[in-house]
Specification:
This protein is α/β, with parallel strands linked by helices. It has ten helices and nine strands.
Length: 286
C-alpha cells in the first residue's frame, strides 16, 4: 500500500485529478451505503443534480491528490499552484491578542488549506490543526510523518489536543479546525445543519471565548484539470453570540458553514457521515 502511495505522489496533479474523478464514480457505483448517504445529504441541502454529480468526482480527486500533498518534500513550495482571495482578512488579524481560529469545512482540498497558510504566514504566526488519527497503525504513523511541515503542528482530537490548541492561542498563534467534523460524545450539541439535527462541536467557539481569539473561515477550491487551487478566506455569515450559550454558538457556526457551502456545493464532501452519533471521547494524556 505504501508503495502505491509513493508512486501516486510522483504523478502530475492533472493526472491524479483525472484518475480521481473516475475513482469517485467507481466508489459511488460500487458502494450502496456511500451512494445513499451522499444523495440524502445533498438532497437535504437542495443541491442541484449537476452539482451533485460533480461532487461525486470531486470526492475521488480529494483522495488521489493526498499522496502528492503528503509526500512533497518539506522544503518544496506549493505557492506556484496556489492563489489567494481574501488574504487581507488574515493580514488584518495577524498579531491579534488571543490568536486566530480558522474554520475549514470538509470542502475542496483542506490539506492544502493548512499547508498554504503555513507556507505564507507560518513564520509570522504558526498554525496548529486539529485532526483525528487514523485507526490503522500504518496509516496513522504515515499521516503524522507526512503532515510535518515548517510552522505547521498537528493536535489529536483528544483532551491533550485541546490543551495543545489553547496553549497555541495563548502564545498568539493560529489554530485550525473542521467545524463540521462530528466531535466525541460530550463535546458537542445537537443543532440543525441543512435542516437536520447534527452533532456539532462546541470547541471552536469555546476557544474563541476562552482566549479572545479572532475567527475566520477558510477553504481551498480545487481548480479544473489539475491547474491548481484558490484559497478563499471570509468572515462568518453571522457573528458569534456571547459566551455561555453553546447551542446558539454552534448554530451560528452551522449557518455560516451552510452559507459558504451553498456558494460551491460541488466541492463539499457530501458523502461524509455528518449526521452520525458521536463516538466515546478520547482521554489520551499529554
Amino acid at each position: 500500500m505504501l508503495g502505491l502511495v509513493r508512486w501516486l505522489s510522483r504523478r502530475s496533479l492533472r493526472l491524479l485529478h483525472a484518475c480521481g474523478g473516475l475513482a469517485g464514480w467507481l466508489t459511488y457505483v460500487l458502494s450502496p451505503s456511500y451512494r445513499r448517504r451522499l444523495c440524502e445529504n445533498a438532497a437535504l441541502a437542495g443541491v442541484a443534480p449537476a452539482d451533485r454529480r460533480a461532487a461525486v468526482a470531486e470526492a475521488g480527486r480529494l483522495v488521489l491528490e493526498m499522496p502528492r500533498l503528503w509526500l512533497r518534500p518539506a522544503d518544496q513550495a506549493i505557492a506556484e499552484s496556489v492563489s489567494w482571495q481574501g488574504a487581507e482578512l488574515i493580514e488584518a488579524r495577524l498579531g491579534h491578542p488571543g490568536g486566530l481560529v480558522i474554520l475549514t469545512p470538509h470542502m475542496g482540498c483542506f490539506e492544502i488549506a493548512a499547508q498554504a497558510y503555513a507556507e505564507r504566514y507560518g513564520a509570522r504566526q504558526p498554525l496548529t490543526v486539529l485532526y483525528r488519527p487514523a485507526r490503522q497503525a500504518w496509516l496513522r504513523e504515515f499521516e503524522e510523518t507526512a503532515r510535518l511541515r515548517p510552522h505547521l503542528a498537528t493536535a489529536p482530537a483528544s483532551l491533550a489536543g485541546v490543551r495543545q490548541m489553547i496553549r497555541a492561542l495563548r502564545r498568539g498563534e493560529t489554530v485550525g479546525l473542521l467545524p463540521d467534523q462530528v466531535p466525541p460524545d460530550g463535546q458537542g450539541v445537537w443543532v440543525p445543519f441543512f435542516g437536520k439535527p447534527a452533532y456539532t462541536m462546541t470547541l471552536a467557539t469555546r476557544l474563541v471565548h476562552q482566549t479572545g481569539a479572532a475567527i475566520l473561515m477558510l477553504w481551498c477550491e480545487r481548480l479544473p484539470r489539475g491547474s491548481g487551487y484558490v484559497v478563499r478566506v471570509c468572515e462568518l455569515a453571522e457573528p458569534l453570540p456571547p459566551a455561555g450559550d453553546d447551542t446558539a454558538a454552534a448554530l451560528a457556526v452551522n449557518r455560516s458553514m451552510e452559507a459558504l457551502i451553498a456558494q460551491h456545493p460541488a466541492q463539499y464532501l457530501w458523502g461524509y457521515h455528518r449526521y452520525k452519533s458521536p463516538r466515546a471521547p478520547s482521554t489520551a494524556a499529554d
